[in-house]
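Course assignment 3, question 2. Fill in each field.
Student: A.L.
Task: Predict the tertiary structure for the chain below.
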Amino acid sequence: MSSVKKICTCAFCVALSYVLPLVFHAAGLGMAFSPLHFPALLCGLLCGWPYGALCGIVGPILSSVLSGMPAASQLIYMCPEVCVYGLVTGLGMRFIRTGRTAADIYLSMVPALLLGRVAGGVVRAVAFLSNAQSYTIAMWASAYVVGTTPAMVMQLVVLPVLVLALTRAGLIPQRYSKTVPAA
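Answer field:
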């Protein structure tokens, strides 16, 4: 994908960071489905790690400024988490080469989903320490794993299908060349 296409795709994903929370929260699904995570993951998958990481930082800030979601006080936790999603999916897509695009996508997304949650938890734990409060593993698991399981499932279902559909439609390049068996 050309640099211009990557920049445009990243800009589209940043715009989705504003639109998706509005739609999900209007439907009462915002907390369960983590709509800010989708654009950064998608951007990392399509454009690579620098764009995915950028989308993961700029998207939540833009959404907060324009809509108040997330609240400004939550940006310190959300930006590192969402940045890691875009960063790790992009790195995964760059370095993981199984020969099957769907496998590459899943092998890029699963570590990103785990590491992003760890990053958010670490930042939250540091913030709690600065307030002389404790932050336990149980608190982290409740907020970042149990509370976001529907989001993880939806991301692991929707995003690979979307990337594969965009590839089949010719909107993004094929990851592997199709070889025709010899007759």
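Instructor remarks: The mean pLDDT is 91. The radius of gyration is 17 Å.
Grade: pending
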